[in-house]
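Bench notes, bay 3.
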Amino acid sequence: MPDTPTRKLRSAEWFGPADKNGFMYRSWMKNQGIPDHEFDGRPIIGICNTWSELTPCNAHFRKIAEHVKRGISEANGFPVEFPVFSNGESNLRPTAMLTRNLASMDVEEAIRGNPIDAVVLLTGCDKTTPALLMGAASCDIPAIVVTGGPMLNGKLEGRDIGSGTAVWQLHEAMKAGEIDLHQFLSAEAGMSRSAGTCNTMGTASTMACMAEALGASLPHNAAIPAVDARRYVLAQMSGMRAVEMAREGLTLSKILTREAFENAIRVNAAIGGSTNAVIHLKAIAGRIGVAIELEDWTRFGRGTPTLVDLMPSGRFLMEEFYYAGGLPAVLRRLGEHGLLPHPGALTVNGRSLWDNVREAPSFNDEVIRPLDRPLVADGGMCILRGNLAPRGAVLKPSAASPELLRHRGRAVVFENLEHYKARIVDESLEIDASSVMVLKNCGPKGYPGMAEVGNMGLPPKLLRQGVKDMVRISDARMSGTAYGTVVLHVAPEAADGGPLAAVQDGDWIELDCEAGRLHLDIDDAELAARLQAIAGRAAPVTGGGYQRLYVDHVLQADEGCDFDFLVGCRGAAVPRHSH
């Protein structure tokens, strides 16, 4: 006999009635070999799968889905797997960020329009985690995140290398003449040698940690390697828990609270997380009706030590992070020192965040450092404002050069990515180590999609001189696997009339991370005159279709780059019949 749900389930509106519509819904489902007794009122659990061979990070998700199904069936639920758009970062042009909102719309409409009582979100590659959480939050049904897990450590010539991070390092070394093309290309196979997401604390791992810190996944979901059998155990347990959540009515709005987001911001600093989390958390919060602002990253992030010694900020990789104790060990260390803002926040297993981690062990103080020996004393995101970024910009201190966090230099300007690529290799380019590299028209509208091009490679002639880092400023994003003193997400962007569009070669620019200041050293009248002179000149060039929809409706970086018409929670009221 089925367990009796403690509340009325959505799926009963499809499969419960003994009328024409109930007949139709049940009959069509029965063509898959489903017996009559399965339509007995048990919870219908959706498995939202971002599997795709074009998204290599998620290419093992069919197996994960099978283990989720086991858990659902074990708990006397009814599993139904469905595909959604898989916006993988590795192959998708011009950027997976262009389709994050599209994927979220796919998720939202698939959940609301179908007989689903709860959903398991199979996430992995960078944008799939925020896209699925955004879509599910817009419906506010019970939901639990299962991440695909990180790859095993990359290997090159007997040493560990990090996915993504190794590309930036080796490419700069090749431009500097330290290695040749053969040595550069020889790292390809060793960098990505198993299923899973990037094994650094890039955006995929960061967002997996954010989901766990928000309480949207079971403990240890973020770090278990993709090929570790414990990943499949967690998938099965998550399937079981999804059935219980459906019966309990434990919806996302009870978990994704203001307090949960404050916890996540603090945790991002402690793990040395990606700058992309700033945009994605804002977008997720907007869908569930929680207001967070850039200043919250200062209030709850600044002053927090970075404890996790992972690339690109540190030395190790996600495999070691899991073996050292994973995110629960980090949460315990924060909580024991009073640094977890809201330990009582509810999580998907029905327990508080602190109850889940209060006895979590830590096995390696080099990977997860104690608070008296952090990787970086203040790892919170640096939120910058000034006449160059009136609505804000971000910088990741844990991946930057400390000596450059307060800097004044002359601008070397690139009008777009193609201009940068053509100009940076020019040996006659007037640029030195004190210069500030400025890249325009790579924001949400200007690219479009806000590609990960903000971590501009340095000029080959300076690399040969031994220069390793310079201040770089743009309206773009950068990969979470990247590093350097890189100012990102300048808002408003150049293509939307932001002051970044007015910067010229030779202008003095001041960066002061501690003061949160980003200043173009010209007077207000000159800035206004420059902007007036170029007004309308850099209008985004797009055709029709989805890109037109995107450019017309995307919000700026400080607002999470969601579409203006998608902000807010629309719920999951059962729609009218289709026949």
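Next record in the batch:
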Amino acid sequence: MRRGQGTRDKGQGSVFVGLLVTCLWSLVSGHCYAEEPQQLAQVIPTDTPLKPTEGLDRQLSLDLRGIDVIDAIKYLAAKGDLNIATTSGVAGQVSLFLKQVTIRDALDILLLTNGLALENRGSVLMVMTEGEYEALHGFRYHDQRRVQTVALKFGNAPRVATMMEGIRSSIGRILSDEGTGTLFLVDVPERLDQMVAAIKMLDLETVTRPAPTVSEVFTLKYNRVEDVSPTLTAALTPQIGALRMDKKTNTLVIIELPHRMPEFRAMIQAFDQKTKQVFIEAQVLQVNLSDQFDVGVEWETIFKNAALNRLTLQASLPSSITSFGKIAVGTIGTDQLGAAVKALQQFGKTDVLSTPHISALDGQEATILVGTKEVYVTSTVSQGTSTATTSESVNFIDVGIKLKVTPSINDDGFVTMKIKPEVSSVARTVTTSQGNQIPVVETSTAETSVMVKDGNTIVLGGLIKDRTTLVRNQIPLFGAIPLLGTAFRFRSDQRTRTELIVFLTPHIISGEAPVGPPMERMKEFKETS
């Protein structure tokens, strides 16, 4: 028992001596920690580690003197609950005396003073040497230099680069290309801003190096220079490009940088295209409605006619003027015009009022007027000091059938027709105080858009008009006897109700060959009506 007790006392003494030696070695080597140095050995990850950046914002104070850099990293990792790994090349000692700073700032100072780099890889912060970081990414971790490209408009690139040598820092670089007038600046952000500001002051147009521009003349064949110049002007290079135009010769002169001139050639070629045209055949019919059809042509019945299998009702719109009937719009095959006129004759006598033909450019409005210009006189009295002067002016107003058509050509052979017919007549007159007769014009209008295939016909109906005519009859000889002749004279009002039908047939043309109405079809149309 005594021998075992002695052995145990001897072992405890050995442990005490070992601990004492360890403490003395720590004092000699200078490893002294101001705050909780025992935590350096407790590199135990928590059950729920924070994100790599959350613990970096914690604050702490440090008084570390000549300790190993890996021990310092372990201490910061423990304080911030961070997952930090180091490569085999990380080594050195560090002394930090910091008060109330974030772990992020302390780690940045540690990396900077020891030539180390930091990289975030998932939930782990990897500490490595500057050389290892540069081998991975191609640049140094603590390099604050940036690259900026400056394109000179007028200045000489090598000369400007030489002048910038006095502004750049010792780690900055300046490259220049005289051919394109481009400068490549590599430096810290502060020096970059200074150099860019100086370059703006030096980049002025001079006699020795004007802007490298070229000029080219374009003569437009189909479009007008005033129509395309706004678009081209907006595309010019600011402060360099210029555009000149001559309306008389329809010519454009463009001054621009050489590499941009192909762009303007393509734009002008796209704009200067031959405009498509539409040749419009119009037939205007008047149907004197019978008494049983005084409300107008029954278009639903006509469009259901078996003989007109290609007659299609497109729309039925309320009339803007008349209280009876509707504005009916439909399409029909050109070879069935005669059958359509025969179908209209069942509603009353049908007469052809006009067959005008007109050509219109794509998107341009064309107007057809079949009627008269009614004249009326207006008087103006000018009062002088002693006399009054009366002056008369003659005015004209269009009365009859006015048809406005705007075609829009599609690429698949269809034409969209915007149609606005207007039928007007003088209903009565108003007498002014000077005795002038002013006509009161009654107008019926409609407006619609219809898409039709090239060569097919659009039918527009429903333009109904009432007209009352004073009819005087007398018995020959007896009606001319003064006083007694009134017994042999008769007066009556005759009411006439008519409906106008308009047929429009568009044909897409190129303008190179002469065009005109097909004579055989026109002859058949007139004979039928």
